[in-house]
Amino acid sequence: MRFVLASWGSRGDIEPFAAVGRELVGRGHDVRMAVSPDMVDFVSAAGLTAVGYGPNVQPIAHAHRAYWTCFFRSFWKTRELNRLRGEVWNPIAACYHEMSATLLSLADGADLIFTGLNFEDIAANVAEHYRIPLVTQHWFPLRPNGQLLSFLPAPLSRGLITLFWWMSWRGAKALEDTQRRALGLPDAACSGARRITERGSLEIQAYDEVFFPGLQAEWARWREQRPFVGTLTMELPTDADEDVLDWISAGTPPIFFGFGSIPVESPAATLAMIDAACAQLGERALVCGASSDFSDVAHSERVKVVDTVNYAAVFPACRAVVHHGAPGTTAAGMRAGIPALILSTDIDQTVWGVAVKRLKVGTARHFWTVNQESLVADLRTILGSQYVARAREIATRMSKPAESVSAAADLLENFAQVEVAR
Hints:
Elements: E1 2-7, H1 11-26, E2 30-35, H2 40-45, E3 49-52, H3 57-73, H4 78-106, E4 112-116, H5 120-130, E5 134-138, H6 154-182, H7 192-199, E6 202-205, H8 215-218, H9 241-249, E7 255-258, H10 267-281, E8 285-288, E9 303-306, H11 311-314, E10 320-323, H12 327-336, E11 340-344, H13 347-359, E12 362-366, H14 372-382, H15 385-395, H16 401-421
Parallel strand pairs: 1-2, 1-4, 2-3, 4-5, 5-6, 7-8, 7-10, 8-9, 10-11, 11-12
């Protein structure tokens, strides 16, 4: 069978699709991917065929972080929020129809389209045009539910999520209707999220249900349509792993600090804060820069800095993990059985911070509120025996990555076969 996998975003958005893509290729299927242009090399290195899809991620990711920082810090500055929203949306709007054309070409003759939350409406319309099945991947529950916004009454939570999808649809309606007309489809009468669900598309929940207690019961009527598979990852080794594990074994287990795909604003100040906080606590720090450049920043011997590392290999040897709150990093820390401190920079990461606090496996705050004093206090909290014990308990309830990837591939194969048989 031929599968088209379409996902736009940073590595955390793309790796789950690459993991499933490699599994499908290993089963003898034809797999083609459409990903952010700056992620094509990553996917190609994983042994998959990929084409660029939409704008580059980094400029938009910077604006996205700035928007949510402004929103949480100064929500009344509407002019600034509108300006930042334009920096996020305008490059996307400019590429919207190019993305549709790319996916239309790629999906010609395909048996199924597998897409992510970003631009699932584009993929849904192309799938409708070709009359082929659509599968979406969600890395947290974004169909109406009462669990995501757990601090609100369940009916209000469901209402706000429904309103979010309606507003998102209205904001992009002109673009989407133009796409649908070009595909020979009528104008949309409701949000893409609602149409996807009502069409009967498979909505894979690529996270562990343990993070959102009660969600599976709430979604009982959609049990077959919204299966939980756990986080999808390739757990790729890196050139730094052996050196890092040697460094860890030569001393006490360190605290891991990671910052994901969006660079921190001041690497020097950030590393100095980490160094000072760990000195105060008598801890060592393993800092993974990823997109942040710490190469020329001075630090003490208690700190080791690397560009990238394999979480699956390194996290079990650490005392705790401090990170930005991406779903993949959150799941990796939970699988390792170590407590977490999430320093979120946007609304998605804030969701995972809330989930971690609710499970009592760590704590969270917005990154822009962090200083040395708060970092020391938060680390003392999560290194407490009750958090360590709770993290170890939750680890036993987490899915295994290889099984999650295999389960997702099974779902795609079975869904394509059932739809073809119809």
